[in-house]
Design a protein that fits this description.
The longest helix has 41 residues. With 281 residues, the chain is of the alpha/beta class.
């Protein structure tokens, strides 16, 4: 819209703007220029107000929170289309990861920003291909994810295990069960389960999420393995910064319980031939 208005203005000949073919033409040109200028100003004010609304929301959320000022390193994990990239954008308060309804993250990507007076670094990982369908690519999945650990040296403080609400109780291809069976124990001690697409909760689950969790064995087991830590996030409501501060508070509490110690092993998946793991240098 802005580009179209500017281009239209550029195409006007200076002579037409100054003189026109007649007094009537001059009036029309002036009226059109004023209208286009008003459109441009209105659009620019709208964009500025949107940015201002986000910052005001962040300020209000911070005023009612008790967030740490320590830098935070986050790694996003999840299957395809779970909303990892959109989650990174919501937390950082800006569009730095490319997010869409189809998978776009094909390699580990790192972005960071100062959020609530602290530097938050986020590593977005390629979406895991469903291992129940693509069993032969399990090792490929793991190597992609573990590259993110090298980018997070001396190690991430938290893994956000991103699961779309629609994937919570899929019986035949259950991402919840897969993570429960494959994540290394100490990795679970550094993990928060993040349920995305929260705007669909009411449509897909006809009861409060905490009650629903109690009924789904695999989901309850996974969350219990993560110390009972879970959170819901609506990436369609970016101005609701309260949901972000609540998530960060849960992460800060977990980091404190871990004595501020980041995850330092070079793998997060269980190994049959090696249970000791190696620390990130």
């Amino acid at each position: 819209m802005v580009v179209n208005i500017i281009e239209k203005s550029r195409k006007k000949k200076p002579e037409e703007m100054r003189h026109g073919n007649s007094q009537e033409d001059t009036g029309k040109n002036l009226h059109e220029l004023i209208r286009e200028t008003d459109e441009l100003l209105t659009l620019m004010m709208g964009l500025e107000m949107s940015e201002t609304a986000l910052r005001l929301s962040q300020a209000r959320a911070m005023a009612h929170s008790n967030l740490s000022k320590q830098d935070l390193r986050i790694v996003l994990l999840g299957f395809l289309t779970a909303g990892k990239s959109a989650t990174g954008n919501t937390i950082l308060g800006r569009n730095v990861f490319r997010a869409s309804f189809v998978t776009t993250t094909r390699s580990c990507e790192k972005q960071e920003a100062v959020v609530y007076e602290r530097t938050i670094s986020i590593k977005d990982t390629p979406g895991l291909l469903d291992p129940f369908v693509f069993r032969h690519i399990k090792d490929h999945n793991e190597s992609d994810i573990e590259k993110s650990l090298e980018m997070s040296a001396p190690g991430p403080h938290v893994f956000l295990l991103v699961i779309g609400v629609e994937g919570l109780a899929r019986v035949d291809k259950n991402p919840v069960k897969w993570f429960q069976e494959n994540l290394e124990k100490d990795a679970l001690n550094h993990t928060v389960v993040l349920v995305t697409h929260a705007d669909l909760l009411d449509a897909l689950i006809d009861e409060p999420l905490n009650e629903y969790i109690q009924k789904i064995k695999d989901l309850k087991s996974l969350i219990d393995s993560c110390g009972g830590r879970y959170h819901t996030l609506n990436n369609m409501d970016r101005n609701n910064q309260g949901q972000v501060t609540e998530l960060l508070e849960k992460i800060d509490e977990m980091v404190q319980r871990n004595g501020g110690r980041p995850y330092t092993r070079q793998n997060i998946f269980k190994r049959q031939d090696d249970t000791s793991g190696c620390e990130i240098q």
